[in-house]
Amino acid sequence: MSVKIDETLTVECETGNYHTFCPISCVSWLYQKIEDSFFLVVGTKTCGYFLQNALGVMIFAEPRYAMAELEEGDISAQLNDYEGLKKLCIRIRKDRDPSVIIWIGTCTTEIIKMDLEGMAPKLEWEIGIPILVARANGLDYAFTQGEDTVLAAMAHRCPEPEFSVRERKETSQNFLTFHSRKKEELVEYANHPSLVLFGSLPSNVASQLNLELKRQSIKVSGWLPAQKYTDLPSLGDGVYVCGVHPFLSRTATTLIRREKCQLIGAPFPIGPDGTRAWIEKICPVFGVEPQGLEEREERIWEGLKDYLDLVHGKSVFFMGDNLLEVSLARFLIRCGMIVHEIGIPYMDKRYQAAELSLLQNTCIKMCVPIPRIVEKPDNSNQIRRIRE
Amino acid sequence: MKLAYWMYAGPAHIGTLRVASSFKNVHAIMHAPLGDDYFNVMRSMLERERDFTAATASIVDRHVLARGSQERVVDNILRKDQEEHPDLIILTPTCTSSILQEDLHNFVNRASIISHSDVIFADVDHYQVNEIQAADRTLEQVVRYYLDRCHRQEKWDQFLTDAPSVNIIGIFTLGFHNQHDCRELRRLLRDLDIEINQIIPEGGSVEDLQNLPKAWFNLIPYREVGLMTAVYLNKEYGMPYISIAPMGAVDMAEWIRQIQKNVNTLTLSSSNKRVDYEPYIDGQTRFVSQAAWFSRSIDCQNLTGKETVVFGDTTHAASITKILVREMGIRVSCAGTYCKHDAEWFKEQIQGFCDEILITDDHAEVGDMIAHMEPSAIFGTQMERHIGKRLDIPCGVISAPVHIQNFPLGYRPFLGYEGTNQIADLIYNSFALGMEDHLLDIFGGHDTKEIISKSLSTDIGLIWNPESRLELSKIPRFAREKVEINTEKFARQKGIETITVEVMYAAKEALNT
């Protein structure tokens, strides 16, 4: 189903000076999510100091992260970078024994054109631990897109599905569902092709999403990233994928092109309205009729009544730094607020198509003007606009 | 290439930015990729500033990589000139951009032709120096720029102030207790009847820098930052300077005596009154500061002979070592600093005060040393505090690098006579809390609430199935009990006997309705 973006939804690009965090910040949450991983950031003191401050007290909890700090000799290519990295990785293997080492490339490695992707396979073979390379640098990406680059790299390592894909496709044409709908008992799953969700979420939130889909008799085969690197889901032809974060456009593209998966384009499960729309988009793909979503959403809104009264009619201006702005704006509009402008570092119009469409519909429903969307905003100009 | 995950001193551009943002009406521009401008956020958060930090990034992206910054840097400088009207714009690269080796000097020259503000390029080698050295260098560079220019234009007012006055050099943003120390110094100087000509860079104006030489002499409370400027002023304008840190009763006395000497030397020529601060020193040490008296009291006698380890920047590590040994009778097994470039001075200062000296910026070495020494207390940075937590040794924080709790809203100087009280408190409390923990261990006095709540759940006979038990274990300990109680309450209300994961989430949702 194609989604047209109405002319009234304006997306401009200001290419200004705005503040956001460096994409290597993704290390701070990804190392906690993937329990058997180790992140090696190849950069300079600036990168290290940033992560030290970002991690705060977590830095003392012996995080599975370290800096490979480039010194003058490394920059001027006097020292052999392969040997340098090898030494560090051997030490990491000895001290922490991870299931995977993830090299995070930074602006510095981009500029000195360090061939991380060339060195990784060789070193992987030598030391016997998988090495992934993700180029999360501030020249190309912003903040949460760091996670995007890591997941895109990880997608290549997901195994093929076990049985023949063609068989799967044929049986799934029937869409037989085996229900036993006793009142309080949970139903078994419908017979449907694999569904893999991608995006890094704390495990209890991921469990909740699994549960929501389970209620609609849809089984989630796996998550990318999984709690452990060794538990990566199977990806391939005939596997359906759906994202939970708005900033994962590269991962989505990798999954479609390289891994030949089918992407379900849905708004993102942020807020009760978003979550409902997300489930409503997934169900029809597997021939399932979603049940009970309207009541559930209503109940949540009722529970939020006190907060809704507080924010009703108040206005918000998103200066933009984390790429979640469109979903957040949509949610706040649904809560009864007015959004003047949505600043966002980068927006992939195709990947966020469903979300943008939901934004439009929400504005129409709540009778507020559609906010202006500004990519790469300029903070000084924004401050001026706020004052006006 | 080396493996690191903690550094004591930040990268060079942070030092430059700290100096720039301390001055009033100075704007800094970083030539850097997206994300290198985390300094703004750090400063707002730690200093609890209400205004935006006056630092912007001129973004380095793929275009810049391919074609060079060209107009972008100059445009950004001119734009800030028009928008903010600063007196001075400082352009600084970061490690990344300094590899690009663009001719930023050239951009600065071109921009300064058109702009109303002065424009300077912060001339620091990012791979040779760290945050502290860069701050020192940038401050000297700014001072030099304005004084040289003034000299060239022969607008220089050669006369000293009539009454004795001083400049305080080195108080700046994100410094360890700098704001409090500054207040204390003001109070002290007022007591001594000495005026303050200027305090730089914090709150200083670059337009006033030309008047620096009007003061009689310069005070450098922290030798890490400010010394280069003092040396320059000494060489070019013959200004004497005092670089002792006025920390601890003994060094306070010494500091005041040096001030006395400087004042009297210069007073002689105008045959004004000579000063004698001895009675002041005596009064303050014996009555106003409680530290000297307290350290001789029975409470403190417990600490005599106890062993400690001290680590930090040169100023604080050296002073605290001397205070512990000279003023409180406590032993220092090892003292150290991460300011490797100032190692000689440090060693010379604490010679004879401690058993061993450690000069390193590798936190693992420091951790090993502490584990080896097994002191009763540690005095160091936040890193040492965490090493202490791991090894179960109490620690007081006496130096940067720090966390937000070391930017207290209350008044907590380290310098001056009030500083001696604060330090004595810190030292005493660090030891006392350590001893408390041991007492609790010996007498097993922890809470018995666990027993009571356990019996409550077994009474009701609710069963948590394996899945839900696993889910519960994933919840952090401090929240787990609440979740457990809430879920069980919900289950009882609904008449559910077996708790599953669905029940847990249903209970959580029910909390909100």
Task: List the SSEs and their pairings.
The complex is a heterodimer of chains A (388) and B (513).
Chain A: E1 11-13, H1 26-33, E2 37-43, H2 45-55, E3 65-69, H3 72-75, H4 81-96, E4 100-105, H5 107-111, H6 116-127, E5 131-135, H7 145-155, H8 165-172, E6 195-198, H9 203-215, E7 222-224, E8 240-243, H10 249-257, E9 262-263, H11 271-285, H12 293-303, H13 305-311, E10 315-318, H14 325-334, E11 338-344, H15 353-366, E12 372-375, H16 379-387
Parallel strand pairs in A: 1-12, 2-3, 2-4, 4-5, 6-7, 6-8, 8-9, 10-11, 11-12
Chain B: E1 2-4, H1 12-22, E2 26-32, H2 38-47, E3 55-59, H3 62-67, H4 71-84, E4 88-93, H5 95-100, H6 104-114, E5 118-121, H7 131-152, E6 165-171, H8 178-191, E7 195-201, E8 217-219, H9 227-237, E9 241-242, H10 249-269, H11 278-288, H12 291-295, H13 298-301, E10 307-312, H14 314-328, E11 331-337, H15 343-350, E12 354-359, H16 363-373, E13 377-380, H17 382-391, E14 395-397, H18 416-443, H19 449-460, E15 463-464, H20 466-474, H21 477-494, E16 498-499, H22 501-512
Parallel strand pairs in B: 2-3, 2-4, 4-5, 6-7, 6-8, 8-9, 10-11, 10-13, 11-12, 13-14, 15-16
In brief:
The complex is a heterodimer of chains A (388) and B (513). Chain A has helices spanning 26-33, 45-55, 72-75, 81-96, 107-111, 116-127, 145-155, 165-172, 203-215, 249-257, 271-285, 293-303, 305-311, 325-334, 353-366, 379-387, and strands spanning 11-13, 37-43, 65-69, 100-105, 131-135, 195-198, 222-224, 240-243, 262-263, 315-318, 338-344, 372-375.
